[in-house]
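Structural prep section.
Before we set up the soaks we want a predicted structure of the protein with adenosine-5'-triphosphate in place, mainly to decide which crystallisation condition to try first. Input record follows.
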Amino acid sequence: MRAIEVSGLSKSHQGFPAVRDVSFEVAEGTVFALLGRNGAGKTTTVEVLAGFQRAGSGTVRVLGLDPWSDRAALRQRVGIMLQEAGFFPELTVAQTVGIWRDFTAAPRPRDEALELAGLEDRSGTRVRQLSGGEKRRLDLALALLGRPDVLFLDEPTTGMDPEARSRTWEVVRDLAGQGTTVLLTTHYLEEAQRLASALAVMDQGEIVASGGMAETLAARRGRVAFRMPAEVRPADLPLAVTLEGDLAVCRAEDPDLAAQTLLSWAAARGVRLAGLEVRTATLEDLFLDLSRSAR
Ligand SMILES: Nc1ncnc2c1ncn2[C@@H]1O[C@H](COP(=O)(O)OP(=O)(O)OP(=O)(O)O)[C@@H](O)[C@H]1O
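Run finished without errors. Recording the tokens verbatim:
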């Protein structure tokens, strides 16, 4: 079943086309990453899906409902963590969660929400004293209060330290494992690659790449890199390489095979390929390729 369906969505801000003819679907219980450079249109898309902005044209459905006209019905089933949360700075973390619970149907217990977000040690701290990353964790605690079926996370781990970030990843994975559908925007490509099973990349309001994470990456070329031996010239090598400082980099559809070819060549000549690194394509490679082709 599809939890989110977007078909031909367009949305302008004062005549500026922020989102243009965007279509994608998110299967129930999966994590979907919406990626793209600053200003690509991700937040606008999420805000339309969350019912904060009305679609300009096109069709949008969340759990089969229209996020704008069925806002009241959806509010109980959707959790939202947007980029700019408005908190009361003088309230403590526990008081903030307490107030939010009053507005939430069948909320999680306060301490469970704080623990999920890794804020159990901060419950007595005033919101104004929280660090940026801790405020993001409070956002997460609030988004999770109502045990949502669909969770919108707009740059959820910005400002978090590595430990908080990996803890958040675990929470997101667990939620998806329990059936929650998660739509994530992030500038951390590693985060998207680790969490999401499908993705769409936006640029200037349009989708420029989309599909399953594994298939999308498998279709890209991987990379073999090694330190260029002083006695070897690039033209001597059996495969084409580019030089990045003292690193020789070979892009290949099958990087394992390319590495084998290079190693057999080196072994036959008694040459050592120091620091050899073989990896399949990452989201970063996809981004670099997309921005190269956009130039
Ligand atoms: N309320 C608004 N009024 C006018 N223009 C807006 C408004 N909101 C967004 N825009 C413009 O629409 C475009 C898309 O913005 P959006 O916030 O959706 O991008 P984004 O992909 O989320 O970017 P970021 O990664 O920086 O958060 C940008 O050019 C932005 O300046």
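Observations: The radius of gyration is 23 Å.
Flagged for discussion at group meeting.
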